[in-house]
């Protein structure tokens, strides 16, 4: 886990990249009826704006909320690192799924030029995204990003 604000920013850049890229491809594939080179291309093209939006939400709002909730209700300072990581990860996924599901629904509504189904689209996106985002975060993205982060930035090398 990051030890200071700079490490946290670097870690967030990497984690957000992995999560938003995969979830963009996943959502476009759902919208297009399956995974294909076309859906990967469309996911990649929509990625930059979604990434910037997700980074801003994560850095300025969600991480403070998630860490605050996790450390108030789920873990104590003396809890194991694994328990802290899993608790904070789960607490990050929930609000990010809610926010980014709305982002996706708005994006599709703009593309279609029809906002009449926005609320229903958002509400149906949330469970679809949650069932992908949580396992992906816990099983793939989290471990990969933590490994890459610590390999690139050994503990104590990024100064506060």
Keywords:
single chain; globular; DUF2798; DUF2798 domain-containing protein; membrane; transmembrane helix; 0% strand
Mean pLDDT: 94
Number of helices: 4
Q: What is the count of distinct domains?
A: 1
Radius of gyration from the alpha-carbon trace, in angstroms: 16 Å
Largest sheet, if any? none
Number of strands: 0
Q: Give helix and strand order, one letter per element, not per position.
A: HHHH
Ordered list of secondary-structure elements with their pairings:
Layout: H1 5-32, H2 37-74, H3 81-112, H4 118-152
Characterise the protein shown here.
- InterPro entries: DUF2798.
- This is DUF2798 domain-containing protein.
- Keywords: Membrane, Transmembrane, Transmembrane helix.
- The chain is mainly α.
- The protein has one domain.
- It is built from four helices and no strands.
- Helix 1 packs across helix 4, helix 2 crosses helix 3 and helix 3 packs across helix 4.
Short description:
With 160 residues, the protein is an all-alpha fold.
